[in-house]
Amino acid sequence: MECKLFVARLMSPIGQITIESCMRGVHKVDLQEPKNFSPDSRYEVELVDGSAEELVNKCEPLGKCVDWIKDYFKDASSVRGLSKPPLHITKYKEGSFTAAVLHNLATKVDVGETVSYGQLATMTGNARASRAVGGAMRANQTPLLVPCHRVVNSDGSVGNFMSGKGNVLKEWLLQHEVKER
Ligand SMILES: [Zn+2]
To answer: Which residues form the Methylguanine DNA methyltransferase ribonuclease-like domain (predicted)?
Structure first.
């Protein structure tokens, strides 16, 4: 059965973010490709159209996701340890290696932390699968919520994000998460 999808568009310090969600959970978080990237952390997250209350009434997971993203950009440490909006992922199979990698990442690597591709492979029970971990990152439909930006190279360099097009954004997000408030 096809899910009925609701959409919210947000302006954020890192540009426009589009969220798609059904009643079961968030399907997709789309980040704008950071061309001429000029982030402004003082910028409050705002809905492009409609109100957050309207969204919550229409589609609860979507409203929750909007709230989570607002809090995340205002003060990333405020969402540390908190539960996230539910996801409804249809892109990869439940029980697959990709699903396990992304689940571990979402539940074990919190705000302000990083993990290497190899460490995440080990956490998922296959220490030699760091290349497959890279593949799982590319399959991630819900960046920020499933924090693929926290997966870095073992030499400490940030590594690729959005197939290499979002590396500056990745660096900015990691900085944002450890910033003192
Ligand atoms: Zn759905």
So the answer is: 10-74
The pTM score is: 0.93
- Domain membership of residue 149 (yes or no) is yes
- Enclosing domain of residue 64: 6-79
Is 148 an active-site residue? yes
- The residue among 33, 48, 79 that closes a domain is 79
pLDDT digits (tens, 9 = 90+) for 101-138: 999 999 999 999 999 999 999 999 999 999 999 999 99
73 lies in some domain: yes
CATH, residue 132:
1.10.10.10
Please tell me the distance between residue 22's alpha carbon and the centre of ligand 1 in angstroms. 5
Q: Which two tokens stand for residue 19?
A: 């969220």
Ligand 1 centre from 20 Cα, in Å? Answer: 9
φ, ψ at 7 (rounded to 5°): -125, 140
What angle (nearest 5°) sits at the alpha carbon of residue 62, between those of residues 74 and 50?
A: 80
DSSP state of 2: P
Q: What is the tally of structural domains in the chain?
A: 2
- Output the CA 136–ligand 1 centroid distance in Å: 20
pLDDT tens sequence across 7-41: 999 999 999 999 999 999 999 999 998 888 888 77
Strand order of the β-sheet with 6-12 is 26-31, 15-21, 6-12, 46-47
